[in-house]
Amino acid sequence: MNHEKLSKRLKRVSDHVPFGARVGDIGSDHAYLAVYLVQSGKCPFVVAGEVNKGPLSSAKAHICSNGLTDKINAKLGNGLEVLENEDINTVVIAGMGGPLITTILEEGKERLDLVERLVLQPNVAADHIRRWLMGNNWDLIDEEILEEDGHVYEILVAEKGSGLSPYEKKDLEKQLWLGPYLLKNKNTAFEKKWKRERQQIEKINQQLAFSGKNELLKEKKQQLSLKMTWLEEEL
Ligand code: SAM
Fold first, then answer.
1. pLDDT tens-digit readout, 32-80
2. Does domain 8-169 have CATH number 3.30.420.270?
């Protein structure tokens, strides 16, 4: 593969994979990341997992055309089940929504016993993942936010049980939503993402202004108003 073709997003994901790691790339699609990790000499072995046959065929073709069938095992399977009988210490799940990544982690958590690092790249709703990590003894050790072709992506990196927490005691919900590291190092991608979100919330607020007054709506309005306060504080 021509390394120039790897997206900026996947390159940044690859930067969080430790040198020499044996990687499970879950939802590998064309296996671009897997091929890059092996071809660049960073990783000796990758399992490229796919739940859908179409993307799995693309992955196999790409792996084969790069002569890497002995170093990348493309497997059909749902989520972490492809890690069965594989000696993997790093798991990557990239390019999906936060809720789907969280479901994959939750449904396959018994297969994470030997895994030391998670590199997760949600396209939306990263707060679901932060919450899951916190509830399952995975420490968030780093975060990144970047923009590519008008889209903003977050990358979350976690390791098991160091006992170190990036969260301050005050405003935990706000940190789970916006990201504890991202809040401390705000960049233009962060500003862009959350300014857009603020506009969305303003629109919803305007619509809700003309709606009824039942308890659910009241709660929704309170949540939105809290989020607006957080965004006003940070932008
Ligand atoms: N990881 C690549 C990336 O970041 O560019 C591909 C992202 S692509 C948008 C998501 C891929 O995940 C699709 O190929 C889809 O078939 C696969 N996928 C979705 N749910 C999955 C699951 N539960 N287990 C394995 N693969 C899954």
1. 999 999 999 999 999 999 999 999 999 999 999 999 999 999 999 999 9
2. no
Which ligand 1 atom sits nearest the alpha carbon of residue 93?
1
Ligand 1 closest atom vs CA 103: 23
| Rounded CA separation 146/110 (Å) | 31
Output b/e per residue, 71-89; b: 16+ Cβ within 10 A. bbbbbbbebbbbbeebebe
Domain boundaries, the chain: 8-169, 190-234
Mutation test of ligand 1: which of 10, 14, 26 has the most ligand atoms closer than 8 Å to its C-beta? 26
Asked if 47 and 28 touch (Cβ cutoff 8 Å), the reply is no
Q: Would you say the CB of residue 104 lies under 6 angstroms from ligand 1?
A: yes
* Integer Cα distance of 178 and 168 in angstroms: 13
48 CB near ligand 1 (under 6 Å):
no
* Cβ of 55 below 6 Å from ligand 1: yes
Q: What is the mean pLDDT of residues 136-142?
A: 96
Closest ligand 1 atom, CA of 121? 4
Which residue carries 């789970």 as its tokens?
176
Specify whether the CB–CB gap between 172 and 130 falls below 8 A.
Answer: no
Within 10 angstroms of residue 32's Cβ, the number of other Cβ atoms is 20
Query: Could you tell me where the beta strands, DSSP code E, fall in 12-161?
Result: 22-26, 45-50, 72-76, 90-96, 117-122, 138-148, 151-160
